[in-house]
Amino acid sequence: MRNARATQLLFELARPGRRSAQLPACDVPEVPLDDLLPAEALSPAPPPLPELSEPELVRHFTNLSTQNMSVDTHFYPLGSCTMKYNPKRNERLASLPGMIDLHPYQPSATLQGLLELLDGLQQMLAEIAGLPAVSLQPAAGAQGELTSLLIAAAHFRTLGQKRTKVLTPDSAHGTNPASAAMAGFDTVQVKSTPAGFVEMEDLAAKLDDSVAVFMITNPNTLGMFDRQIGEIAKRVHDLGGLLYLDGANMNAILGITRPGDFGADMMHFNPHKTFSGPHGGGGPGAGPIAVSEALAPYLPVPVIVRDGDRYELEYDRPQSIGRVRSFFGNVGVLVRSYCYLRTHGPEGLRRVSENAVLNANYLLSKVKHIFPVPQGDRCMHEFVASGARLKSDRGVSAMDVAKRLLDYGFHAPTVYFPPIVREAMMIEPTETETKETLDAFAETLFRITEEPPDLLCEAPHTTSISRPDEVRAARQPVMSWRAE
Ligand SMILES: Cc1ncc(COP(=O)(O)O)c(C=O)c1O
Q: Which residue is closest in CA terms to ligand 1's atom 9?
């Protein structure tokens, strides 16, 4: 539903003949289009594009941008997504002419600065992962998973072992089983305990020598660090399998512990969550992976190699799984990550994680009296609070609370996930927020719980769109336009 503040569509604003640009009359002979293109490639009529003046166009997009909630305008505690503030400096550095004017088809002799930067990024990621070999190519965390699983498959092929299964905890992000299926494995779910940890008996029951990989996110989606990880790694390795660490929650452990040190053989990073990559809009993304020495030969090509003070792109890697992405990956995102890591340095990165965990625990301690946290009084970078009591006492759901927060200028937390918590609200404040913001958010949550349920059930009241049918919006996007 749209209210009065909603912006009209460009097609509603358009009037035939209006223009944003006025070009001088053509002073060269016109060339008919069908002289340039085969007839079958030509559309019978021009596309019905909206016709508007420049101010209308500028106002339209500026107004739309002000209706959006972003991390640059609002507190955005969307659990699992790590919506921390990205320093603007990194945007500026990634936009320097020496970066954006490069072309991937340039000979590598003319790309030495960029290759040095990417090599430096690989080294820093290897250090953070505690794993020696890195590929920057995957274009998203999910593609990092797929790439790693293809590497695992190649590794077991080389060993002559037929391993058909990938285990994932029942709390795993949907991309984990999806990547496993895409890489040709059967996926098997391992149960979690009520606290969200791997149920070791179930793991023992499902782990055998047909298992190629156990994929785990640690800290997990409930914001808890599974301390059994060393034992899990041992059990997987004892049977010849590999341990995969989904690094989506690395923001909680930078410089504190390293996946390679707690037994992971491979992992991906999500730079858009951890290292100031841009969020949203479908990209641009990146999902670098780090792997153990034994798996390094299978990394995708090209691999950046250093020969003295020269950098080269090496393609001749007989055991490589091949290409997973054109050129060298999404370089713009990788440059931002490099800048972020260099700016912080090891000490700064550790402080990032310590503050992310501190902020989450501070907020947890402030809200738990009204929104209990079933997993306990301590968390890592995020926690999952339950609105079940509010629902049973006053009929107000987690969704109502989430929607009402928008009226107060806060982005909603993630709701109803993970399903293990009733009326779940997954809150991740991140390290970039002040105490005042966290206090204001907690006070607003309390205020909302005292408001009349009728008001809440119809919230939000101040946004352009109130309660869209989210499932329908996702499944039936409007793909039509109104031609004059
Ligand atoms: C736990 C977890 N794993 C994997 C992914 C997939 O990462 P990407 O969105 O970069 O593909 C996400 C993304 O949000 C995630 O939260």
A: 141
pTM for this model (two decimals)? 0.91
Ligand 1 binding pocket mutation candidate from 78, 137, 147, 175 (most atoms within 8 A of CB): 175
Distance of CA 304 from the midpoint of ligand 1 (Å): 26
- pLDDT tier at 2 (50, 70, 90 boundaries)? very low
Instruction: Flag whether 84 is in a domain.
Output: no
Residues contacting residue 128 through CB under 8 Å, at least 6 positions apart: 250, 254, 255, 258, 269, 349
3 state SS of 183: coil
To 10 degrees, what angle do helices 175-182 and 141-159 make? 40
Ligand 1 neighbourhood includes 219 CB (under 6 angstroms):
no
Select the more confidently predicted residue: 279 or 216. Answer: 216
Question: Are residue 239 and residue 166 in the same domain, yes or no?
Answer: yes
Other C-beta atoms lying within 10 Å of the C-beta of residue 367: 20
User: Parallel, antiparallel, or unpaired for β 242-247 and 211-217?
Assistant: parallel
Give the domain extent around 293: 89-344
CA–CA distance, 195 with 190 (Å, rounded to integer): 14
What is the C-alpha separation between 102 and 262, in angstroms, rounded?
Answer: 39
Quick check: 243 and 212 in contact, CB under 8 A? no
Cα(339)–Cα(262) distance, integer angstroms? 27
Strand order in the sheet with 211-217: 133-135, 289-291, 266-269, 242-247, 211-217, 165-169, 186-190
Predicted confidence at residue 84, as pLDDT, reads 93
Residues 43, 140, single domain; the answer is no
Amino acid residing at 32: P
Whether the Cβ atoms of residue 290 and residue 265 lie closer than 8 Å to each other: no
User: What CATH number should be reported for the domain holding residue 323?
Assistant: 3.40.640.10
CB 49 within 8 A of CB 17: no
Residues 336 and 359 in one domain: no
Q: Final residue of a domain: which of 292, 312, 344?
A: 344
Contact status, residue 210 vs residue 202, Cβ threshold 8 Å: no
